[in-house]
């Protein structure tokens, strides 16, 4: 990118972050104190191997593809802003885009575990969005499960020779929905229904979430495809370097 394009990108991201702060102050992932302690610990432990591999992935990107670090910062800001916007849904959580699919498809899903936990940590501290005790659960659903599915869907579409923008749309959309499938499972597991147990509770939360989350996922898919088209126009060299466009090798 030229210096002018970099300046415009930074200004644009700054405005997006400001927008995110203004609109997302009362938004929640799984809120502070909502999950019993044992579930907070279990989800946190499950995140550890993904975070270790994610750190290695980002370290490799920083060492081998320094020109792409601005794009890496951009996908972090993108996830921060989208996941800070919310539509009230059910007690203990809310519906909102995740924004993690973009980074997963560009840099691989492992990198997004680190980006995602940083986003969630800042939101918990600065916006009361989510929580510190539920950081592990929120990280697993939004920064691990969703990104891995997004990456898998995108690579499958690529292998099947499906149009790249269709693959990007499906990756972002389905990754968003899978995040909320996992969130519903996390809440249902912690609070099983008196009739039907965990399964009935999960189905109940999935049904309630679907009302707001399905249209949000579609919107996120479209928005992510638009962002990728813009990046292909202004940062083709960087996308080629990280392997998103033909001619490079992507970090996994």
TrEMBL record:
Q: Which UniProt keywords apply?
A: Cell membrane, Cobalamin biosynthesis, Cobalt, Cobalt transport, Ion transport, Membrane, Signal, Transmembrane, Transmembrane helix, Transport
GO BP: cobalamin biosynthetic process
Q: Which GO terms describe its molecular function?
A: cobalt ion transmembrane transporter activity
What functional role does this protein have? Part of the energy-coupling factor (ECF) transporter complex CbiMNOQ involved in cobalt import.
Q: What is the annotated localization of this protein? A: Cell inner membrane; Cell membrane
In terms of domain of life, where is this protein from? Bacteria
Signal peptide region: none
- Self-association or partners: how does it assemble? Forms an energy-coupling factor (ECF) transporter complex composed of an ATP-binding protein (A component, CbiO), a transmembrane protein (T component, CbiQ) and 2 possible substrate-capture proteins (S components, CbiM and CbiN) of unknown stoichimetry.
Tell me the protein family, please. Answer: Belongs to the CbiM family.
Principal place where this protein is found? Answer: membrane
> Topology with regard to the membrane?
Multi-pass membrane protein
Coiled coil start-end:
none
Q: Organism source for this protein?
A: Clostridium neonatale
Protein name listed in UniProt: Cobalt transport protein CbiM
Cellular-component GO terms for this entry: ATP-binding cassette (ABC) transporter complex
The membrane spanning regions, by residue number, are 37-56, 68-87, 107-128, 166-191, 203-231
**Which HAMAP family would you find in this protein's record?**
CbiM (MF_01462)
Q: In which pathway does it act?
A: Cofactor biosynthesis; adenosylcobalamin biosynthesis
């Amino acid at each position: 990118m030229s210096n002018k394009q970099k300046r415009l990108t930074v200004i644009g991201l700054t405005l997006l972050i400001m927008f995110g702060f203004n609109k997302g102050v009362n938004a929640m992932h799984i809120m502070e104190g909502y999950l019993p302690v044992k579930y907070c610990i279990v989800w946190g432990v499950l995140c550890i191997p993904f975070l270790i591999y994610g750190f290695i992935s980002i370290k490799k990107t920083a060492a081998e593809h320094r020109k792409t670090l601005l794009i890496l910062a951009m996908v972090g800001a993108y996830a921060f802003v989208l996941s800070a916007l919310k539509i009230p849904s059910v007690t203990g959580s809310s519906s909102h885009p995740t924004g993690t699919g973009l980074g997963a498809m560009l840099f691989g899903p492992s990198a997004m575990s680190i980006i995602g936990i940083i986003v969630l940590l800042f939101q918990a501290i600065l916006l009361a969005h989510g929580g510190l005790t539920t950081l592990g659960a929120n990280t697993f659903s939004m920064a691990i499960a969703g990104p891995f599915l997004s990456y898998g869907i995108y690579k499958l579409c690529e292998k099947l020779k499906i149009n790249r923008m269709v693959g990007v749309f499906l990756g972002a959309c389905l990754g968003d929905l899978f995040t909320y499938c996992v969130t519903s499972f996390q809440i249902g597991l912690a609070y099983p229904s008196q009739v039907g147990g965990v399964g009935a509770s999960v189905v109940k939360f999935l049904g309630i979430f679907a009302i707001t989350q399905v249209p949000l996922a579609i919107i996120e898919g479209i928005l992510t495809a638009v962002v990728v088209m813009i990046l292909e126009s202004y940062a083709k060299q960087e996308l080629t370097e990280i392997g998103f466009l033909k001619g490079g090798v992507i970090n996994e």
